[in-house]
Amino acid sequence: MATFVSLTHFTDQGMRTVKDTVKRSEAVKSAAGKFGARIKDVYWTLGQYDMVVVIEASDELAATAFALTIGAAGNTRTQTLRAFPPEEMQAILSKVG
């Protein structure tokens, strides 16, 4: 499974219904499996982003399809980053000249 970190902003629509954000996160967790993904962690944050979500997905295609589907609901806009745990980073570094 690949790991992704999603840095999330509420849209205007998402802010109008912010009281439903925890309930929406539970619905998103349930939907993730349909895409070969799993929501590992959800954090609501202060500062530049409203939420940080850690996602595991079978591959980049699954993660992208999942992110596009969630984004189409209109409550959030995300910047998603591929994250590498130490063992994957070590494998990458072993290929560096």
From TrEMBL:
It comes from the Bacteria. Pfam families: GYD. This is GYD domain-containing protein.
